[in-house]
Amino acid sequence: MLQERHGRPNAEASHSLGKYDVAEAAAYSQDPAASQTLKRWEQLAPYAAEFVGTALLTFTYVCMGLDQNVTWGKTAVGLAVVVLMYTFGHVSGGHFNPSVSLALWLSGRVRTGVLCGVISAQVLGATSAVWLRFCFRDTPPNFVPQSGSLPWAASLIEIFFTMMLCFVYLSVAVSRRNNPATDPSSVVGLAIGCCVMAGGYSSQAISDSMLNPAIAVGMQLLQVTRGADMVGWGFGFLFCEVVGTALAVTFYRLVYAEDSEHMDWLDGETPKALKISQKLSAEFLGTFFVVFTKGLCHLGGSPAEAWAVAAAYGAMVYSVRHISGAHLNPAVTLAVKASGRGLIDLKDTISYWAAQFLGGCFAAAMFTLMHDIETFGVEREAGAPFYKIGLVEVSFTFALCYIMLATNTVKPVDTVSRQNDAAGIAMGGCILVGDSGVGHISGGIMNPAMAFAITASHAFTGGQLRSVLVYCGFEAVGALLAAAVFFVTHIHVYTGRTPTLGLKIKA
Predict the structure, then answer these.
(1) CA gap 98, 104 in Å, rounded
(2) How far apart are CA 410 and CA 325, in angstroms?
């Protein structure tokens, strides 16, 4: 792999043996001349993987952009990232993006010479894919800010979502807390793909987010030679993506402080105790991206609002679950506190709430400014009685909090990994079901920080604040119900004994 995990080279990188079996390969490698040839190919393999992976990703991106597939285009690009990460990740680390490579270099994981080589491979791969797409469709891609949108808003899209993507990569793929020596994370591709989906759907009304300097440069070079309208925007996006990368590394060093201070952890060493500043930074950042995605998708009229918010939630859960528990929601924090297991004390509970509300309010300020002071309220169904809104908010907040307690606070049993990799999928899935199912009634909020941020921003343009208390009250009821039901169904967590009824399926 191109990066050095935890400050030392990864000696376990595996390579395909092609048509040779193990015995033939061993005999072949004993020949000095053949051994030198194999070493050269091994050195070339990561760069070749980055070239091919970036080319395939760019080709998918450009095809979806030219065909204007509003509903499924960003999902296709996100799934391409997932597939490519799991295909090439063990060879090169699966960067496919100069921003990711730069983030690794800034955090001390990649040498300068390697950085230059891998970025060259990525830019060459992206440029080749752009030209290939142009060859069989004589319409150059023209990714500029949408008509009527604010140009600087497109820049902020690139900054914030490149920051999200790089932070998630560093957190999930590199950090020692997410990658113990004997139990590395297996959700890197899924988390990065979710970032791409969230950023893509959030930006549809403003610009077609690139989040990738290699794609920006490749498309800019094509535009320069074809004389199209995008001249300048490719390099402008590149600058914004570099800024987003720098912000990602800054927050990574704040949230994962011990990785920066003590990169050469020994295998089996117990991680240092977390500081409250690390936990609050994680909650602020995670809540910000969830609310930011929600607001941009709604104001932009995205057909995949629920899908994008679920993707953002899942990505941030996988990023900060080993730091703060990835609550990202005051109702979830209340449920964890009410579950009575000593996972969080009252002082930290209040601090979490403050960080979550601040993150939500900052997100609301950003998406309001980016849409030229346009806001929206939490209620969707005109004239819907509060009992109807309350019923759906209590129900789905209960579901979200219960799922979080049952997955993110309980270690899995009967599995090789001690990391509960189902947590992000389960919680994101709950967001998707709730927002899709009852979003037309209550907005599918399920989060007091989101309700407060959206309502507060709406109040600046004549909206009413009274609904926020109703939403927060209903969501608090859902959280307390979740804690009570969790106690009943997971009593073994409190007693330390496994369930004895015998209903568990055995192999």
Answers:
(1) 10
(2) 11
Measured distance CA(109)–CA(170) in Å, rounded:
10
Q: At a CB cut-off of 8 Å and minimum separation 6, what does 50 contact?
A: 2, 88, 92, 95, 96, 118, 121, 122, 125
The H or E element containing residue 135 is helix 112-135
- The domains of the chain, with CATH numbers, are 43-259 (1.20.1080.10), 280-412+420-498 (1.20.1080.10)
Q: Please enumerate in sequence order all residues whose Cβ is within 8 A of that of 345, keeping only pairs 6 or more positions apart, or say none.
A: none
Q: DSSP labels for 21-70?
A: -HHHHHHHHHSHHHHHHHHHHHHHHHHHHHHHHHHHHHHHHHHHHHHT-T
Distance CA(236)–CA(231), nearest Å, equals: 10
- C-beta separation of 467 from 456 below 8 A: no
Report the distance separating Cα 32 and Cα 43, nearest Å. 17
Residue 10 clears pLDDT 80, i.e. is over it: no
pTM: 0.88
Q: Are 413 and 496 in contact (CB under 8 A)?
A: no
Residue-wise pLDDT for 176-210, tens only, equals 888 877 778 888 999 999 999 999 999 888 877 78
Instruction: Report the C-alpha gap between 411 and 163 in whole angstroms.
Output: 30
Q: Is 381 exposed, middle or buried (0-12, 13-18, 19+ CB in 10 A)?
A: middle
Q: Tell me, what DSSP letter sits at residue 66?
A: H
Backbone phi, psi, residue 398, to 5° = -60, -45
Q: DSSP string covering 355-409, please?
A: HHHHHHHHHHHHHHHHTTS----S--STT--HHHHHHHHHHHHHHHHHHHHHHTS
Whether residue 17 is predicted with pLDDT greater than 50 in this model: the reply is no
- Rounded Cα gap, residues 449 and 331, in angstroms: 9
Query: Rounded mean pLDDT of the chain?
Result: 83
355, 280 Cβ separation under 8 angstroms: yes
What is the maximal distance between C-alpha atoms in the chain?
81
Radius of gyration of the chain (CA): 24
Helix axes 448-459, 330-338, angle to 10 degrees: 150
d(CA 458, CA 374): 8
By CB atoms closer than 10 A (0-12, 13-18, 19+), residue 120 is middle
**Whether 386 contacts 361, CB under 8 Å:** no
